[in-house]
Backbone:
């Protein structure tokens, strides 16, 4: 036993279940008290001495050239400290809201007054913001190369049932409640201090160094807390660089630029729209053999890439075409699980329509074809069964079209998803102080996923000490660099690095303590606040006393990921089901219940893991039913850059939500896998399928607004299925 | 070629407050003046800075502010009370919720000058003797927060709800918290937290 444990240490494994006192349990987040009392400081809350307010003049036109730019009146305005043109005469503007001039003034109202006093004349150019019809896009349509696998033509000839449908998702925005922004100041000629709302604390300095002309090492970046990112906050952005330049112009005084809500929704990120016509062919027994899709969509100016369809299930014969539509809708950014919600909808809705054409339960169709999921097929099978029980699917499912009388129709839908989520590159310094307290430092960030808490759990459990004894410090470039929080890579990265650091620190501490306990270091273990001899707990020393033996010198150890031992892997699998009611007179869709069954390998904190799933389902309900960045074809502007008309789901809109996390040996041994993104992928598809099941017809595009539901109902009668 | 002169942006809320009052018609003077408006006497302040006094979380705060400054900006910029957040800046999201004489209001939509003489309670004022308020404790235990940016607004709105209705039904919750939005999706935790806090306050 002793030897096995010693070997495990050397091999850098996660502890066995009986050795986990914190890992996998429900632990309240360590920064909860700061956040519920309002003491938590976000970038938006940073008020520095002598701070100036920065504001940006934005172009009102979707496509224009700057014909005249005159800031002279503003430069003389009382209270204005710096004026920085971001564009020059002749520059082309490609979306409404693009930055033209930045100013810094003594306070916000003065800065706003200054912005209004700037004179700009624009030469308007033709714009284009329509994304739903590639034929209308003319030269704005950019076809990608066709992709073919197997022999789709033969497979469609062989197919006994073919379903065809149109599906898609509109442009949506990130709508982080804390807008993008930064507070930047110069200390002398060469040093810059940046407070910024970011998903990549360690990545910001390198991106600012070039534009500011100072070495990255002279740029210190800090962030205590962030009010949401969802994929949109990885760079300093033009306004972060502008804040730095304005500060320099103003003699180094701190300049704060946080985007106003309308700018946040117009320019600080959107999820690309994707639409597509899909044909799926199957044998009469439900074996899916053929896929054909033509997709299109926009992410603004850069062309959208082809979608990873068919999603999860690798249908053997495929033909795929994609047309990117280049529009003046504004910049797209990574949005929580880029491309997956769209690919998931196109695939799971097409399979759901195929099931309807086959007169099959879509759950049975998925199970019948689940081997196409490859390696994770058994996980999906298990999850589908658990979800079905939690939803009482077999008892409650009915064929497409709720036959019950009255205007309220109820239906069920199902979807599956996947996400890689392997831990990112990350370093941390772990220090054991002679008083027994432990500090962990890394240049990471906690997006609200509970990163701080997860690190503390891993370290405390490894060292056998209480959670409160561990202090986690993140959000500063003075700490070892850690990867950005994107792609659900943070939990795997920080927990693996922290585990390795704690194991190595323990080894060093054991080496000091072993002679005292008349044992060799490999015979020792840390447990319950003591260091003791394995198998002989009577020979032990309290943690504090052991640390006092450090002779006044704190012990600091560097942990890294990747590193020895496989502590993190990739490939989360999940299943979701939705139960909805649709009022066929008003077109209003209500969520009755959703079930999420999710795998993410070894779970560090069950409480925050479940919160990720609840939160993702709610965000999913929001984009499935309400959210759309509505572009006006006439002006080329976003029509709803505010929170009255850019709708987020509220407390009343979510129904009953059930989360089941997969646990047990089979999942633990895969190590830690990221969870931030996977559960946000399926809601759109599951809800769309549930609505089709309720009302008997597919509503092609999300969000499933009353208007779209009523339109689909009006068209009902013409079936797309050929049997 | 069509040349356009840009009037940057549309009407901001601050402008709206400004033009919906009568301050625009008043010459630049410091201190209140009395004008006859529709037969009634109205005190007019500003547009320059005016001394103001507030009672916030039981303490007295003083500042010289322009009359167009909102209560939210006064709290955040003058008194370093940054718990309440500005998110939508126009009365939609609830992130700026504070209590005025015990009633929840959107601080982004109240002028600081009008909050004088009233008891202002912010999220920072909910702890008693260094102990978390039961609602704050319940938020932590039920993980009713992720990024936490909406959390101060929700905590204050929950307190207001439980103060007037110690035993809220699910429908009461929807009505009482319908004015607050969360992007991370913490509503399940919030429902559980408010149920727990209600139980605790009833002594359960
Ligand atoms: S900021 Fe006041 S309600 Fe949104
Ligand atoms: S916890 Fe992030 S917005 Fe509510």
Residues:
């Amino acid at each position: 036993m002793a030897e096995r444990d010693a070997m495990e240490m050397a091999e850098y494994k996660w502890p066995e279940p009986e050795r986990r006192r914190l890992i996998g349990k429900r632990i309240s987040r360590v920064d909860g008290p700061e956040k519920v009392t309002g003491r938590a400081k976000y970038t938006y809350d940073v008020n520095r001495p002598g701070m100036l307010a920065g504001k940006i003049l934005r172009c009102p036109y979707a496509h224009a050239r700057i014909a005249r730019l005159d800031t002279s009146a503003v430069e003389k305005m009382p209270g204005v400290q710096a004026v920085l043109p971001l564009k020059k005469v002749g520059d082309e503007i490609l979306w409404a809201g693009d930055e033209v001039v930045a100013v810094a003034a003594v306070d916000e109202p003065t800065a706003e007054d200054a912005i209004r006093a700037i004179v700009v004349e624009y030469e308007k150019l033709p714009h284009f913001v329509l994304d739903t019809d590639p034929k209308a896009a003319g030269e704005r349509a950019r076809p990608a190369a066709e992709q073919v696998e197997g022999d789709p033509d033969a497979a469609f000839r062989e197919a006994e049932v073919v379903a065809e449908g149109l599906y898609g998702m509109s442009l949506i925005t990130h709508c982080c409640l804390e807008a993008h922004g930064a507070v930047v100041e110069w200390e002398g000629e060469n040093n810059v201090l940046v407070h910024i709302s970011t998903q990549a604390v360690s990545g910001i300095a390198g991106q600012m160094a070039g534009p500011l002309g100072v070495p990255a090492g002279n740029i210190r970046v800090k962030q205590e807390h962030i009010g949401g990112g969802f994929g949109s906050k990885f760079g300093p952005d033009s306004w972060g660089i502008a804040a730095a330049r304005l500060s320099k112009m103003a003699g180094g005084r701190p300049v704060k630029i946080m985007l106003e809500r309308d700018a946040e929704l117009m320019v600080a990120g959107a999820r690309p729209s994707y639409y597509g016509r899909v044909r799926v062919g199957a044998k009469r027994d439900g074996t899916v053999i053929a896929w054909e899709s033509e997709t299109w969509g926009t992410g603004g100016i850069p062309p959208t890439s082809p979608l990873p369809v068919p999603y999860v299930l690798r249908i053997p014969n495929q033909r795929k075409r994609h047309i990117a539509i280049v529009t003046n809708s504004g910049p797209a950014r990574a949005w929580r699980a880029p491309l997956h919600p769209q690919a998931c909808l196109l695939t799971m809705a097409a399979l759901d329509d195929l099931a309807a054409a086959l007169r099959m339960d879509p759950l049975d169709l998925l199970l019948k074809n689940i081997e196409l999921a490859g390696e994770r097929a058994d996980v999906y099978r298990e999850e589908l069964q658990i979800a079905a029980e939690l939803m009482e699917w077999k008892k409650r499912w009915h064929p497409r079209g709720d036959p019950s009388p009255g205007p309220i129709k109820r239906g069920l839908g199902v979807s599956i998803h996947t996400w890689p989520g392997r831990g990112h590159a990350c370093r941390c310094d772990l220090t054991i102080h002679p008083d027994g307290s432990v500090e962990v430092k890394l240049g990471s960030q906690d997006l609200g996923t509970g990163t701080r808490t997860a690190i503390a759990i891993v370290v405390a459990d490894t060292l056998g000490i209480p959670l409160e004894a561990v202090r986690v410090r993140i959000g500063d470039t003075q700490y070892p660099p850690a990867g950005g929080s994107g792609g659900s890579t943070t939990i795997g990265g920080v927990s693996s690095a922290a585990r390795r650091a704690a194991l190595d620190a323990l080894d060093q501490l054991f080496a000091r303590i072993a002679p005292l306990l008349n044992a060799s270091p490999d015979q020792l273990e840390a447990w319950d606040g003591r260091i003791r001899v394995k198998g002989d707990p009577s020979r032990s020393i309290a943690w504090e006393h052991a640390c006092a033996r450090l002779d006044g010198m704190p012990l600091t150890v560097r942990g890294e990921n990747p590193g020895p031992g496989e502590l993190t892997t990739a490939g989360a699998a999940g299943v979701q089901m939705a139960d909805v009611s649709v009022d066929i007179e008003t077109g209003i869709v209500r969520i009755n219940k959703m079930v999420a069954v999710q795998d993410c390998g070894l779970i560090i904190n069950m409480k925050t893991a479940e919160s990720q799933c609840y939160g993702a389902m709610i965000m999913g309900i929001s984009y499935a039913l309400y959210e759309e960045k509505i572009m006006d074809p006439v002006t080329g502007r976003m029509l709803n850059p505010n929170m009255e008309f850019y709708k987020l789901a509220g407390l009343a809109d979510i129904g009953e939500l059930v989360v089941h996390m997969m646990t047990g040996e089979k999942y633990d041994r895969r190590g830690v896998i990221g969870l931030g993104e996977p559960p946000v992928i399926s809601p759109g598809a599951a809800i769309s399928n549930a609505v089709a099941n309720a009302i008997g017809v597919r509503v092609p595009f999300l969000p499933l607004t009353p208007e779209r539901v009523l339109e689909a109902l009006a068209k009902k009668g013409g079936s797309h299925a050929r049997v | 070629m069509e040349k356009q002169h840009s009037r940057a942006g549309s009407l901001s809320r601050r402008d709206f407050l400004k033009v919906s009052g009568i301050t625009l018609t008043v010459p630049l003077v410091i201190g209140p003046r009395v004008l006859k408006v529709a037969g009634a006497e109205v005190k007019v302040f500003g547009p320059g800075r005016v001394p103001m006094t507030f009672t916030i979380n039981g303490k007295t705060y003083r500042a010289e502010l322009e009359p167009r400054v909102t209560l939210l900006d006064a709290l955040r910029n003058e008194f370093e009370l940054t718990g309440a957040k500005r998110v939508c800046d126009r009365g939609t999201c609830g992130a700026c919720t504070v209590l005025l004489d015990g009633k929840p209001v959107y601080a982004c939509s109240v002028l600081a000058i009008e909050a004088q003489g009233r008891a202002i309670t912010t999220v920072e004022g909910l702890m008693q003797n260094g102990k978390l308020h039961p609602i704050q404790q319940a938020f932590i235990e039920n993980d009713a927060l992720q990024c936490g940016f909406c959390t101060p607004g929700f905590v204050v709105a929950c307190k207001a709800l439980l103060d007037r209705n110690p035993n809220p039904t699910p429908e009461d919750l929807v009505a009482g918290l319908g004015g607050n939005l969360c992007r991370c999706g913490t509503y399940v935790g919030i429902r559980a937290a408010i149920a727990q806090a209600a139980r605790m306050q009833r002594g359960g």
In short: The longest strand of chain A covers residues 408-419. Residues 2-40+423-561 of chain A form a domain with the Aldehyde Oxidoreductase; domain 4 fold (CATH 3.30.365.10). Chain A touches chain B through 73 residues (CB under 8 Å). The pocket of FE2/S2 (inorganic) cluster (ligand 1) is lined by residues B 86-89, 91-96, 106, 108 (CB under 6 Å).
